[in-house]
Design goal:
The complex is a heterodimer.
Chain A (H helix, E strand, L loop, with lengths): L22 H7 L1 H19 L6 H26 L7 H18 L4 H26 L3 H20 L9 H8 L7 H19 L1 H11 L1 H6 L4 H27 L10 H11 L11 H20 L4 H27 L1
Chain B lengths: L2 H15 L6 E10 L2 E11 L4 E5 L6 H8 L7 E6 L2 E2 L5 H6 L2 E4 L11 H5 L18 H12 L17 H12 L6 E5 L7 H16 L3 E5 L3 H7 L2 E6 L2 E7 L5 H9 L17 E10 L3 E9 L3 E3 L8 H10 L9 E4 L3 H14 L5 H4 L7 E3 L1
Parallel strand pairs in B: 3-8, 3-9, 6-7, 7-8
Antiparallel strand pairs in B: 1-2, 1-4, 4-5, 9-10, 11-12, 11-14, 13-15
The chains are: A mainly alpha, B alpha/beta.
Chain lengths: 336, 374
């Protein structure tokens, strides 16, 4: 692929933006810096505290751990750039894992068919979300909050509240496989990140997502089908939530009705830390990847430093607020 | 009527009319909102290469008419013909495909995206080859944008983020956007609101060169001097009706105003009454970081003070800084009202109610700013 074809939309073009307003301000104006500095800083900090952080084994387990939520974050990145949000991703992930494991275990469907049905469930939930938000006009916050409850309730209804296991051998061996030193989930996750990154930067559909999130009215007047773009992003988010849920199901060889509880907040935090604007129209896939890594480094770093696990939760909250604060500073630095 | 019998008739009609037919004709256009008719059968014609000024007071129906032409609203009645052929406009896309471009008054850009993306939004060039239709050709996109921007001599880098440009340049980007395709009819709604006089001059040059290429322009503005300069014909709307459709050369400015308002105005501006009294508000070196720097002025009793400046020049920020009534930043600014603190508060209330907030982008008050009625 041609290197020169970078859109360069994410980085202010060359010197024009840097009009001598002090180094810090200029540095803040480059979006990636806002994410990389804390990522490297935190990595260094926890590494000094305990070098185990960057041992091969721990890196492998960190990468494995972030891939489930990571897959979902890929979808939510697209959706949030389009200017919408989906709070139902966690419970949709749980529902899809339950649908798939129920079909393959209790209904004895072939594994592939059960997995497809799981994906279809996620896509369908996404479609409903999309129609409610983009067509009917219910605010995404409400529509997808409703979906969160519906999907969670449905998973408990289908599973009758019990975990479904053991799953067929093929699922088990896929989940336990040590692909490229980590897991098949991680490979899938990274592949999706690359696809989404190319989609966002170079593909027509990707730029339609930015246009829709950046100014829906302008995009509509320019002939972009903004309703269609939003619905497509909701469907993709639903599909990827399903994938995330089924990957964790395969990993632990069990379909749990509570799978994905709290994922929505983790995913939104990662995406926001990664620099996706809450108002849509800006953000990058690489940013989200950094956001996920920051969350994982903090979590893993605190664990191996022996800090009470609840401090992780506190720390992640602080980081998220700080990330949005930096984002605001960056925007202000750019505007003035 | 069977298609067979209709076809020759239709062809004969177009053959007859086409050379003479205006580029665009809107006939008997009606539109109601919630049962209230706002356009009562409006006619508008546009010849090739012509600049038509569309005038009227706020609420006369100009914007509604243009939104119908842009495919944003659908008409309730009447017909639109382009080159003598009936034209159905169901969506902005339809209008665009017909070569009708509207530069809306509001700045409709995506602030986080580059100039290129805003200018070519929805039309980014694609690559060739298999799957090429899915992939954007960025070098080509930037090149094409530079080409479109060139006649505007705006010195804008296509890669720049639009949110980082000055308001005037953002408006030029908006104009460039409408030039990106094969425009045949171009509607400009208050295009000069935020432009400097040099930029206005360049815009008029662009308009002239577009007209020689046969593009027709509908120019909406409240600045009559600009209208006189740029338009060959004027259509005036008043309360949803056409009040006049006259060649520019046959009109004086007073005629135009009379057509717009519907009655004789004794004077374009009413006489000022009274003599200003003592100073009741003195502001000296008002400064607020990032918004207002070293602003001083005095308002006297019985006086109205108007603020004037380009969009984004800081008029609103001054008022806002005053209304916040915070203690001035030490050493930098001081402002005082000559009465006691309680009167000062009452004053703030009065100022707040007298302050016409700049809903400028939607209301077209590009100049508005603040009035103290004391």
């Amino acid at each position: 692929m041609n290197k020169a074809s970078h859109p360069e939309t994410a980085t202010p073009a060359g010197g024009s933006a840097a009009t001598g307003k002090g180094f810090v301000r200029r540095a803040l104006a480059v979006p990636e810096v806002g994410i990389l500095v804390p990522l490297l800083g935190l990595t260094f900090f926890f590494y000094v505290l305990n070098p185990v952080l960057l041992s091969g084994e721990n890196i492998g387990s960190m990468l494995r751990a972030m891939s489930f939520v990571g897959v979902v974050a890929v979808g939510l990145t697209l959706l949030m750039i389009a200017g919408e949000i989906d709070l139902s991703v966690g419970s949709v992930a749980g529902l899809c894992a339950i649908v798939a494991s129920h079909l393959m275990k209790n209904a004895e469907w072939p594994v592939a068919a059960a997995l497809l049905a799981g994906l279809a469930t996620g896509g369908f939930a996404g479609l409903i979300n999309g129609l409610l938000v983009a067509r009917v006009g219910i605010p995404a916050f409400i529509a997808t909050l409703g979906m969160l409850y519906v999907a969670r309730g449905a998973s408990f209804l289908i599973s009758k509240g019990y975990p479904l296991y053991p799953l067929p051998a093929s699922v088990q061996s896929f989940g336990a496989a040590d692909t490229l030193g980590t897991s098949a989930s991680f490979v899938i996750f990274i592949a999706l990140v690359i696809v989404a990154d190319v989609l966002l930067r170079r593909m027509v559909f990707g730029r339609m997502i930015y246009a829709t999130g950046g100014n829906a009215e302008a995009a509509r007047l320019a002939g972009v089908n903004t309703v269609g773009v939003k619905i497509a992003c909701f469907v993709l988010t639903g599909l990827l939530a399903a994938l995330g849920g089924m990957l964790i199901m395969a990993r632990f060889n069990v379909g749990r009705p509570e799978t994905g509880t709290g994922w929505e907040l983790e995913v939104i935090a990662a995406v926001v830390i990664g620099g996706v604007s809450l108002f849509g129209g800006s953000g990058t896939m690489i940013g989200t990847l950094c956001g996920l890594m920051i969350m994982q480094i903090v979590r893993s770093g605190l664990v191996i430093s022996g800090v009470n696990t609840h401090w992780q939760t506190v720390a992640l909250g602080v980081i998220m607020i700080a990330a949005v604060g930096v984002d605001l500073l960056r925007r202000r630095a750019r505007l003035s | 009527m069977t298609p067979n019998s209709a076809a020759p008739e239709l062809m004969a009609q177009t053959a007859n009319h086409s050379p003479l037919a205006p580029l665009l004709s809107m006939h008997g256009i009606r539109k109601s909102f919630a049962g209230v008719e706002v356009l009562h059968g409006v006619d508008l014609t546009l010849q090739r290469g012509e600049v038509l000024a569309l005038l009227g007071e706020n609420g006369a129906g100009k914007s509604t008419l243009m939104k119908i032409l842009g495919g944003d609203y659908t008409r309730d009645g009447g017909e639109i013909r382009l080159d003598g052929e009936p034209l159905e406009l169901r969506s902005p896309r339809d209008a665009e495909d017909a070569g009708i471009r509207i530069i809306y008054q509001e700045l409709n850009y995506a602030p986080d995206l580059s100039v290129t993306e805003n200018v070519l939004m929805g039309h980014l060039p694609r690559r060739s080859g298999p799957l090429g239709a899915l992939v954007i050709n960025w070098p080509e996109a930037h090149r094409r944008t530079a080409e479109i921007l060139a006649p505007l001599k705006a010195d804008i880098d296509p890669r720049q983020i639009v949110g980082e440009l000055s308001v005037g340049r953002q408006q030029l980007v908006e104009i460039a956007k409408s030039l990106s395709g094969k425009a045949r009819v171009l509607v400009m709604d208050e295009p000069t609101a935020a432009l400097t006089s040099r930029e206005v001059h360049l815009l008029f040059e662009t308009i002239a060169s577009l007209c020689t290429q046969g593009v027709a322009i509908i120019y909406i503005s409240h600045r009559l001097d600009e209208v006189e300069q740029v338009a060959q014909r004027i259509t005036v709307l008043r309360d949803g009706n056409v009040a006049g459709d006259v060649p520019m050369s046959e009109l004086t400015r007073a005629d135009i105003v009379r057509l717009m308002v519907g009655r004789e105005l004794e004077a374009l501006y009413p006489a000022r009454h009274g003599t200003p009294g003592e100073a009741i508000l003195e502001v000296a070196h008002l400064t607020r970081a990032g918004a207002v720097e070293d602003v001083s002025f005095t308002v006297r009793a019985g006086e109205s003070v108007g603020w004037y400046g380009l969009l984004g020049a800081g008029q609103n920020e001054v008022i806002r800084a005053l209304l916040e009534l915070r203690p001035p930043q030490p050493g930098k600014s001081k402002w005082r009202v000559r009465q006691s603190a309680s009167i000062r508060r009452a004053m703030a209330k009065r100022m707040a109610s007298a302050w016409c907030p700049k809903i400028a982008k939607s209301k077209g008050w590009w100049w508005a700013c603040g009035w103290f009625i004391t």
